[in-house]
Model the fold of this input.
Amino acid sequence: MITLRIHPAGAALALLLISGSVQQPGVVDGVVTAPGFPATGAVVYLMRQGESGLAATTSEAALIDQANLRFVPRVLAIPPGTTVDFRNSDPMMHNVFSPAFSGDPFDLGTYPRTEHRSHSFDRTGVYVILCHVHPEMAAYVVVVETPHTAVVDENGRFRLDGVPPGRYLLRVWHRRIPRFEQAVIVPPDGLHRLEVDLGTAGRRGESRP
Done:
């Protein structure tokens, strides 16, 4: 007689598979509208209800370029601990710094074309990125404790992939509004065609994560 031994963890997984209760991550997508201005550059992110943050780790560096006297992209959403490379692709000197009101000020100095400098963003918050040489240049690095983030495109659309089913707070940061927040329930097949109206934000707090 052959005896089959199953580890308790394997048995539990088998029961979940049989019962159909193993739920795969889905997609959350939709459109963001704003009162009187484009929602382009808004940051949409999900926080699981009842938790201060979701595990968000990254081993890849992000990039902000300086090209045609602009920071590209202008808005970057990342988890804490991400290193951002600031590259100079213009034929003139550029500088990269974040002022004291951002909460964690830094200055990477001034450097020429083809060079780059890096900074690791370890704290959550919104960082304003400026250039001492060209004061008209500005960018925003939004650091949030969740892997489920997206920057709204020029058509007001966003898409979050790999979202497990559950109850979340959907939050939106935009530099021109107070923080927007609404409760959402993500079903097993995802949440599609979500409409987010920033005009209903009211005064729910400062414009920060």
Observations:
- The chain has two domains: 23-55+148-209, 57-143.
- The longest strand covers residues 26-33.
- Helices lie at 8-19.
